[in-house]
């Protein structure tokens, strides 16, 4: 009887070693770490916005509507509370992603409008902030790509046999991933105009 019990325990241990439980833990931690870096870079960008706005305000005739949109987009993006559970809640994840997309769009618009102001373009502080912002946007892209890769690895494990059985038993659901906002809009080629603007 004792031998049978030890045999069952050994069989259970051997079956668990191939079930992917430890791999789920490892990949879950990797995705959380990658997500933390995404948040870190988003925060870095949000911290730049007040300095950019303050510098642009020095240009007396600058479009107030553009500045207001940047300020509002930053407020919205930073007001969303993000927790580790956000990764497992597609609705909350999408809401956060949408707010960050609005901030990206507002900042892009601000940089385009700034091109019309020679004094602002010549301002060293603004040029430095612009370079820092561009570097931050690149860091965001790298961090998002790492997160996408870590989530893909986790989701493949959660959907593959036999580890999908472990996922069902322990409620390891596939994680939400970044999606492209305005997918139809970006699939349309941009209009390029090489004509010289009238002075």
UniProtKB/TrEMBL annotation:
Signal peptide: 1-22
Keywords recorded for this protein, A-Z: Membrane, Signal, Transmembrane, Transmembrane helix
GO cellular component term, pick one: membrane
Membrane-topology descriptor: Single-pass membrane protein
Pfam families, alphabetized: LemA
Compartments in which it is found: Membrane
PROSITE patterns assigned to the protein according to its UniProt record, in alphabetical order: PROKAR_LIPOPROTEIN
Name under which the protein is recorded: LemA protein
Source organism of this protein record: Variovorax boronicumulans
